[in-house]
């Protein structure tokens, strides 16, 4: 069974993340979306909220049934071992993502040479998107309709507005 892990903060999940999940789901038997618990990143949303947004977004896509949503803390390679996966999936938007992603991929390979990082180039129409951009635009009253999965749009945008008041 080919299992891939798609790790990240997902604070919150965007349409760009969902696009990567959909495309990865076609390439692997199972994709585990691994939400990092690390509180030092000071996420706006709790783990439960972030997980819930991902689950709802995944469920809103017909046929997307090989996705599992889970939490992880500590080293990603340790999590990979526990879940019998050797493939990390990451989305790449710009050249500017590359430096940091390249460093993480090499670090993970240094920690375990059998672990491969597979980069998927984000769909052009979502290439400008990030969770931080969504939070900023929304908190300043901008329209985030095209940025968030439809099923979570109202809840997430209301919460962002409330929490950034
Ligand atoms: O969505 P993000 O914030 O870019 O995700 C970053 C994440 C969670 C993938 C990265 O910080 C991570 O893998 N953290 C786990 C700690 C770890 O394994 N560090 C060594 C590899 S850099």
The secondary-structure element order is EHEHEHEHEHH
What number of domains? 1
Given the C-alpha coordinates, what overall shape results?
globular
Query: Could you give the order of strands across the largest sheet?
Result: 3-2-1-4-5
- CATH architectural label: 3-Layer(aba) Sandwich
Mean pLDDT value: 96
Give start-end ranges of low-pLDDT stretches: none
Please give the CATH class: Alpha Beta
Radius of gyration: 15 Å
What is the tally of beta strands?
5
Report the sheet with the most strands, covering strand number, pairing sense and barrel closure: 5 strands, parallel
CATH superfamily, called what?
A: HUPs
Strand content: 15-25%
CATH overall fold name: Rossmann fold
Tell me the span between the first and last alpha carbons.
Answer: 47 Å
- In DSSP terms (H or I, runs of 4 or more residues), the helix count works out at 6
| Residue share in helix | 40-55%
Oligomer: single chain
Structural class: alpha/beta
What does this structure look like?
- With 165 residues, this protein is α/β, with parallel strands linked by helices.
- It has a single domain, classed as 3-Layer(aba) Sandwich (Rossmann fold), CATH 3.40.50.
- It contains 6 helices and 5 strands; from the N terminus they run E-H-E-H-E-H-E-H-E-H-H.
- The protein has a 5-stranded parallel sheet, with helices on both faces.
- The chain is globular and about 45 Å long.
- The model has no long low-confidence stretch (mean pLDDT 96).
- The structure holds 4'-phosphopantetheine (PNS).
- Residues 7-9, 36, 75-76, 104, 107-108 line the site of 4'-phosphopantetheine (PNS).
């Amino acid at each position: 069974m080919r299992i891939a892990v798609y790790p990240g903060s997902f604070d919150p999940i965007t349409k760009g993340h969902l696009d990567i999940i959909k495309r990865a789901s076609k390439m692997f038997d199972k994709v585990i979306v691994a939400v990092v618990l690390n509180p030092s990143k000071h996420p706006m949303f709790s783990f439960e909220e972030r997980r819930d947004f991902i689950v709802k977004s995944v469920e809103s896509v017909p046929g997307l049934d090989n996705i599992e949503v889970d939490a992880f803390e500590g080293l990603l390679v340790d999590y990979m071992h526990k879940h019998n996966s050797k493939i990390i999936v990451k989305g790449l938007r710009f050249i500017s993502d590359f430096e940091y992603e390249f460093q993480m991929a090499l670090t993970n390979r240094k920690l375990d040479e059998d672990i491969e990082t597979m980069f998927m180039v984000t769909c052009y129409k979502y290439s400008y998107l990030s969770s931080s951009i969504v939070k900023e635009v929304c908190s300043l009253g901008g329209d985030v309709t095209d940025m968030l999965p439809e099923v979570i749009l109202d809840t997430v945008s209301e919460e962002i507005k409330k929490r950034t008041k």
